[in-house]
Amino acid sequence: MRRTSLLMLVLALTGFAFAGHPPEPLGSWSGRGVLLVAGQEKAERDTVDIHLLLTADYNVTGNVGEASLEECHWSSNRGRLLRWLNWKTDWIVKGNLRGCVTDADTTSSRQITIPFNLLEEGTLRGGIMVLHGWRYPDPLLTSPGLWLLPESTVTQTE
Fold first, then answer.
1. How far apart are CA 113 and CA 130, in angstroms?
2. What are the helix (H) ranges across the chain?
């Protein structure tokens, strides 16, 4: 009896953990972000345009300021169990950012990751993280981080 109950619990959790994903983030996303640069005062930080294009073949192109995304791919970052536990994000982009983000930027190449979720109101919300081998990644943008809209609904401000 105990074995049957335990087996049923394991099967239920396994099915829950691997069943379904939220909608795929295909399409063109745009917005703006404020760069987080060590030593810069808040008023001096640059605001940059951000554009991501996620395709059905799992490739990602676009730009962050003047730098371009290269060799980037998107994938699922968690299953239903981790989503239910609110661990990790639904989706993640991994690749490289080539070129300087602004004229003042001195780093021309970065390995990056972009963990994100699609929110119910139709926004792509996450962050852009710069990877440093075994060290914890550094955020490239200040709070609120990455907040993009489908390109057809983006309005120009400023």
1. 7
2. 2-18, 80-84
C-alpha to C-alpha distance for 45 and 111, rounded to whole angstroms:
22
pTM of the model: 0.78
Number of H helices, E strands in the chain: 2, 10
From the list 38, 61, 37, 34, the residue with the least C-alpha distance to 48 is 34
Identity of the residue numbered 25 = P
Q: Is 60 helix (H, G, I), strand (E, B) or coil?
A: strand
Maximal C-alpha separation, the chain: 69
Distance CA 156, CA 81 (A): 38
97 with 72: CB under 8 angstroms? no
1-45 residue pLDDT tens? 676 666 555 555 555 555 556 778 899 999 999 988 655 555 567
